[in-house]
Amino acid sequence: MIQVWLRNFLFFRKTFLVTLFWTTLEPLMYLAAIGFGLGRFVEQIEGLSFIEFYYPGLLASTAMMVSYFESTYPSYTKLTYQKTYLTMLLTPLNPNQILFGEILWAATKGFIGICGVILISLFFGLFKVQVYLVLPILFLLCLVFAAFGMIVTSLAKNYDSFIFSTSGLIIPMSLIGGTYFSINDMPLFMRSLAQIFPLTHAVSLTRTILYRQLSMSSLIDLGVLIIYLAVFVLIAQKLFSKKLIK
Amino acid sequence: MTNAVVAQNLAKDFDGITAVKNISFEIKPGECFGILGPNGAGKSTTMKMIYGHVVPTKGDLFVLGLNARTDIKRIKSKIGVVPQEDGLDVDFNSLENLQIFASYYGVPRDIAKARAEHLLSEMKLSEQKFRHVEALSGGMKRRLAIARGMIHQPELLVLDEPTTGLDPQARLWIWNYFENLKAQKKTMILTTHYMEEAERLCDRVAMIDQGVMLDCASPAELVKKHIGAEVVEISSGSETSYWKSKLSTLKIDFQDHENKLFAFFPNVQARQSFIMQLQNIHYVTRLANLNDVFLKLAGYSMRGDA
Ligand SMILES: Nc1ncnc2c1ncn2[C@@H]1O[C@H](COP(=O)(O)OP(=O)(O)O)[C@@H](O)[C@H]1O
Ligand SMILES: [Mg+2]
């Protein structure tokens, strides 16, 4: 498993400059444009300034997006055109070890994205010590969406297949998961829908850790994320192994 | 010593499509065993069952004494595979390809490096070691894939069409290399659709077509058993039926294909006494080879996906 992770890391090292670019420039643009720009028109939201409110949302949605995109397009290329997984499978590695290595890698990349957001947040005066407690939660979220990405990759027929999961699930989640506005301001139907999404729970847990007191609902948030991870991993194992061994 | 590979009534169905039907064979240690057949015959499927990418639908398969159904991980640690599609990692250069592949086997880094350098020089790839695999020629890629298959010093080499698509020089180089391995008593199983390749390299050959094993023996035995020693190709044209009946009355074994007759003889004398009777007709004489055996056993018609 770790060998698979390492293979990806070795490739990642070659493209380090590109990474530096997106990990820092994207959060800079989001925090500036949405946090400062848009935030000027908002007085207070759930008792926080808009940029403070938005910051946990940006952390969680970055974790989700980066991990999901890493475990879809590049993984699909490795599964089909590059035959990277089939080559790994010539060795004693089994499909599960390859899958776990890929999930761990995609989550690592999500984590690198989070570090970029935290770094940039320093310039916006958003630093809080509690951010260290948030890291494991966000890494858990990275794993959830890395596993989800591997499910989609195993089901995909071609690159266009990812449009369905991206536009149908990932983007809506990032919009109504409590990232840009409070889910309490949404109609009941939307609120219930948002509660199904793992991202919503990650945002709420992150926000609580940063600014509030932990409570029973924090435990539920954590539980939901763990259950999602377990279920996604199980499904991914079944589908991925079927793709490799006939 | 246990056999390197034992296949008993091996079969594989892919949702209704039968790729391999009840194939049985044994490969002895130190042997070079060939699986010969046209495209779609079931060669790769048989190989994939040996290296675990395909699970047999029926039958038993033992590789190096281990059951392929239950012990594939240990089998894979002991065999070196060169699949039909190289599957080289295009994100890396030649040296890195070998090092990364070695890491999947858990070969320590310093040992992997030394072995990779050694194999690259043996494969005449030292000058290409920092080149990305996409920049390599077809022959270089294949040599790199062979080097990759040997990075963990396997007991058995599994080579799926190792020279298909290569130019004659590249093919010749690989043949020589395999002959060296044979001299070192490496056990090899290779597939090919080149009869000359099987004739040159393989101690024994299994001929398969449409998933069925037609026969299995040494190339010389196969030729002797099915054809004899000599072939006369007669361009019989419009007189084909006349010559066919003539050959039949002379009790000479033959095959016909598109106005051409292939007559088979056990020795030169028999051939000579026959061609004395040939007048005003174009013919060619030559030695019998595996091609003749295959065409006789499998028929001359084109295969669906050929
Ligand atoms: N994964 C698969 N799914 C369905 N059919 C397959 C699969 N792999 C091979 N086949 C079919 O099995 C037959 C044998 O294929 P293969 O073993 O690749 O032949 P060869 O290597 O001799 O060219 C072919 O008809 C091929 O289409
Ligand atoms: Mg094949």
In this entry the ligands are: adenosine-5'-diphosphate, magnesium ion
- What is the distance, rounded to the nearest whole angstrom, between the alpha carbons of the first and last residues of chain A? 22 Å
Outline of chain B, from the CA principal axes? elongated
Which outline of chain A best applies? globular
> What is the count of DSSP helices of chain A, taking H or I runs of 4+ residues?
11
Tell me what the structure shows.
- The complex is a heterodimer of chains A (246) and B (306).
- Chain A has 246 residues and is mostly helical.
- Chain A has one domain.
- Helix content of chain A is 76%, strand content 0%.
- In chain A, 46% of the residues are buried.
- Chain B folds into two domains: 212 residues, Rossmann fold (3-Layer(aba) Sandwich), CATH 3.40.50.300; 61 residues, Alpha-Beta Plaits, CATH 3.30.70.860.
- Chain B starts with a strand and ends in an 8-residue tail after the last helix.
- The mean pLDDT of chain B is 90.
- The interface between A and B is medium-sized, with 22 and 29 residues.
- The structure holds adenosine-5'-diphosphate and magnesium ion (MG).
- The site of adenosine-5'-diphosphate has 11 residues of chain B, from strand 2 and helix 1.
